[in-house]
């Protein structure tokens, strides 16, 4: 079982730019048909770029060295981890060119099935270059014990 003393622990922050090329690759990967997902045509026309696809921030959250290294702090073996749930709450639009800072923390740890399964809830606050909160990401990881 994972020690509940880690609830509230802040994990390392990282900052990443929302690059048009990355948006293009993401759009292709999800089958997005809109040729201007990146906002490049909008910028040429003097218009505001469109917001990023809803799940794009998940990929940026993983843009850090050793994105699962924090699990070792909990004594958790990555081979025993399953991605259980992911949710996104947007508070402001995120567009190409934004510089985002991801600040994750362990929001909760629960033990289920008599200790056979632990659930780790990680919440990440995302702020833009102006320091404004633009999103809150929530992930639940299931850890098989024993």
In short:
The chain is α+β, with helices and mostly antiparallel strands and 146 residues long.
Explained architecture:
The protein has four helices and five strands, in the order E-H-H-H-H-E-E-E-E. The N and C termini lie close together (9 Å). The chain has a single domain (4-144), classed as Roll (Thiol Ester Dehydrase, Chain A), CATH 3.10.129. It has 146 residues and is α+β, with helices and mostly antiparallel strands. A hairpin with a 5-residue loop joins strand 4 and strand 5 (133-144). A five-stranded antiparallel beta sheet has the order 1-3-4-5-2. Helices cover 18% and strands 35% of the residues.
Residue share in helix = 10-25%
Structural class: alpha+beta
Q: SSE order, as H and E?
A: EHHHHEEEE
Q: Give the full name of the CATH homologous superfamily.
A: Hotdog Thioesterase
Mean pLDDT: 89
* Number of discrete domains: 1
Query: What does the largest sheet look like?
Result: 5 strands, antiparallel
Characteristic key phrases:
single chain; alpha+beta; Thiol Ester Dehydrase, Chain A; 5-stranded antiparallel β-sheet
Give me the secondary-structure topology:
Blueprint: E1 14-17, H1 20-30, H2 40-44, H3 56-61, H4 70-73, E2 81-90, E3 99-112, E4 117-127, E5 133-144
Antiparallel strand pairs: 1-3, 2-5, 3-4, 4-5
């Amino acid at each position: 079982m994972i020690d509940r003393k880690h609830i509230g622990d802040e994990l390392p922050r990282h900052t990443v730019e929302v690059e048009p090329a990355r948006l293009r690759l993401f759009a292709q990967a999800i089958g997005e048909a809109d040729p201007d997902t990146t906002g490049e045509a909008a910028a040429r026309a003097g218009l505001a770029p469109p917001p990023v696809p809803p799940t794009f921030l998940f990929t940026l959250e993983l843009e850090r060295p050793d994105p699962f290294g924090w699990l070792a702090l909990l004594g958790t073996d990555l081979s025993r981890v399953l991605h259980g749930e992911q949710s996104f709450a947007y508070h402001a639009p995120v567009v190409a060119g934004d510089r985002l800072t991801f600040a994750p923390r362990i929001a909760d740890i629960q033990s289920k099935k008599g200790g056979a399964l632990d659930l780790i809830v990680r919440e990440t606050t995302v702020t833009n270059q102006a320091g404004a909160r633009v999103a809150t990401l929530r992930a639940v990881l299931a850890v098989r014990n024993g």
